[in-house]
Please model this.
Amino acid sequence: MVLVAIDGPAGSGKSTVASELAARLGLKRLDTGAMYRAVTLLALRAGTDLRAAPELERLARQMTLELDGVKVWLDGEDVSLAIRSAEVDAAVSIVASCPAVRSELVRRQRHWAELQGGGVVEGRDIGSVVFPRADLKIYLTADTEERARRRADQFRSLPDPSSLARRDALDSSRPASPLVVPEGAVLVDSTGRSVEDVVEEVLKYL
Model:
């Protein structure tokens, strides 16, 4: 089986491209960002201090999480929409910066790939930390204005490049597994391009 790692900043098109690529290759897809969002949702619902590492680690370790590429079930509840709320979006980078949370979720991600025998995995540290020996590593990007528009469409709000810039800064500067271009990754710019066009380019590297 093939293992494809797709990294990139918010709004670069990772989820859409990963979903289409997985379908084209007949592989399962794992959205690791959804895993961090699930922990964030738990923390927000519990009123947990988002910088309280021990409590965040406990939530990450104890939760039951199932993902099928489309739906996300957290402790038996379908939270596919809840984890995409603006509240979760504003807090997820803080939770994702917790080393203990990252360690637990990386363990789960590697276990998932082992069970599947491969797959298309998307996130912000997949090719650099989780699967540095992936068969193909893609770093997907787009210009800030376009990424802001995509995020605004997702959350039904006005485009805010400054908010996206803050998210980029948080993801790129965190001590634990920061967002970087993985060694050996192919840089793919999705600015102004259709999903099909981007996927066709990625397929050429396999």
Q: What stands out?
A: The chain has a mean pLDDT of 93. Strands lie at 3-7, 29-31, 65-67, 72-74, 77-78, 119-123, 136-141, 186-189. The two ends are 12 Å apart (CA to CA). The CA atoms of residues 112 and 137 lie 18 Å apart.
